[in-house]
Amino acid sequence: MMNAHNAMFPGDPAPFSPTLDTDSQPRLLLVDDEPRLLSSLYELLKGRGYQLTTASSGAEALAHLSRLRFDLVLLDLRLPDIGGHEIMDFINEKGIDADVIVMSGEVGIDAAIGALKRGAYDYLRKPYAREELLHTVTKALKGRRLAIDNERMANQLENSEKMYRYLVDSSPDIIYTLNHEGRFTFVNDRAYQLLGYSRDELLGKHYSVLVHEEDLERARYVFNERRVDERASRNVELRLKCRGGNSQDRTFNTTLMTISLNAIGMHVPDQEVKKLEFFGTYGVARDITDRKRAEEVISYQAYHDILTDLPNRILFKDRLGLAVIQAKRKKTELAVMFIDLDRFKLVNDTLGHVKGDELLQQAATRLKDCLRKGDTLARQGGDEFTIVLPELRDRDDARMVADKFLETLQQPFDLDGHEVHISASIGIAIYPTDGESIDELLRHADIAMYQVKALGKNGHSFYHTSMLDVSHQKIALEQALRRALEQDELEMYYQPQIDALTGRIVGAEALMRWNHPTRGVLSAGEFLPFAEENGLMLPISDWMIGALCRDMLQWNNAGTDHVRLSLNLSPQYLDRGDFFEKMRNALVRYNIAPGQIEVEITENICIRNPQYAIEQLNKLCQLGVSVAIDDFGTGYSSLSYLHRFPIHTVKIDQSFVKEIYEEGGHYPVILAIISIARGLGLNLIAEGVETEEQARYLRANGCMTMQGYLYYRPIPLGEFMKSLRTQPTLFGLRAIQA
User: Fold this and answer.
1) In terms of CB atoms within 10 Å, which end of the chain has fewer, N or C?
2) Domain GGDEF, which positions (predicted)?
3) Three-state DSSP state, 475
4) Hey, what's the torsion of the CAs at 495, 496, 497, 500, to 10 degrees?
């Protein structure tokens, strides 16, 4: 900055703040008495985001400076009326806050010295290169912006010498000079602040007293730098010692330049300088200790999982690649494992993501404790982990490690008082038998893991080529399921719900079936879990709502609109924001009364995101759709959910009903659920009723609505409508078998 002082004179313009900020364009004053050069300069800077003002004389420049604010003045020293030095004096005297770039054709050094003494930002000799000027302008404006951000460290010093001293001593960097022997001749106060050494302690001392022993060789070159051009040392990182020992070493980024004999030219201008004698070194050392630490943290986080502190998939692939190279060289085997935690999603949904994260951390610790020092455990994402076991003696080594994993994971986990049990599905691929590339080994281990899941989870399996056929079958199943949506192969079946007193059908649960072209009719359990995993649940649910409304329109036209239909709602579908609108639009389109629809949700939906679930279900209730809790008693819910959520119906899960073997037996869970529903005034439906003993026990204890094979299996729409028309009027008739 060029402010020499804060003095005010009568009639002077008031000091003002710089105009340069992120919301305004920098204002530049271009001063040159040659119209051609001034026009060329204007055209060069036009359209680059600057506000440009021109002056072809010193008087015009002074008038602009008195009237307007400028961030940068591009000034020709040779002007017809008032010289450039005088204009710079005016700028300094008036406290005008503007940087000056001098452009001059003067070949003598006095003009340059005069300009620099007056605080010029830079001195360009004509003719200057276009890129040089643009770079200097950009650098000057950037410097102003940094100066503003740092609260204008240069505060209108009285003269250029004081400004220099202030900037040096208040610099965030260590600024120093060395003589030709490498001894300090100057060092600013920053050295004491950062290193603990005062100026007097360092003056006359060799630079090596500060440099870390391991960096002395590199320091020998940069602290004796003799070059002055672009070859001079730049951005060399060194560790300097702090008072108190090496434990406090700090890292410095050192930019060096040299002071050479061309300074003599300022003292003896009439003599030809024939030889440049090395005089010493000038340097700026910036403390980058914190930056280096931050870089180390960023680098670490780029290759590690933040939650478990394990290597992530990037680092894992790198280590696996090295292990493969090593195994190939030594002609040994290695194992790649793919681990997926069973039942983790249930824990995550019921206890929340915080507890889920704690479970992942504990599981990672247990897995790591089972490994050797040279093994690598990584987290792929979610609840999936990968392991590389190098230098196997045989497959039994991998089998033993997998058994250890299963054993340690089966031990209960304590999550702040919640005892949680999980298991794992582990797939194993062996190099080179099961693949010689990273991707092959990971893919085959993944396929083996899914094979374990398909066989009931909680186990491990080595990859075999036959599994690839199963994998291809899954891909084919996904493609076939997508075609099923397009070719109308899906169909809704209905399992009637019976009033135990009258034997009449009072409702039905909608259940999806797939009329597979080669495998026949598939139940929902055979393809919906696959649809959940592969993102097909949303389009299938869209289809289901439309199909239900079309079917209901048919039986309403047949005069059976007293029957309520219940449909299972996927958690994924409830989470989608447009679910409510789709349901409402379908009811309006087919003229279906909302009171005929009951949505079944699982307990885990309530716990997974309670507030959002409440909002969605309240919208349904306001529309007139009722809500039922399916499989009640099998999840982690508490009675508070029955109060908080707009629940109308509780369904007793069939796992409890199956336990009823004697009509006169005692089944406390059933009695508790019936009591809860009765106390809260909720409807009650028992699922999976298959025997007369079960029906009589439920009826005797107050559950009057039942659903199960004792009465009806799930049946197509046509049979369901026929059953509605011909349903029994007396209780006790045998079940109609589909």
Assistant:
1) C
2) 332-465
3) helix
4) -130
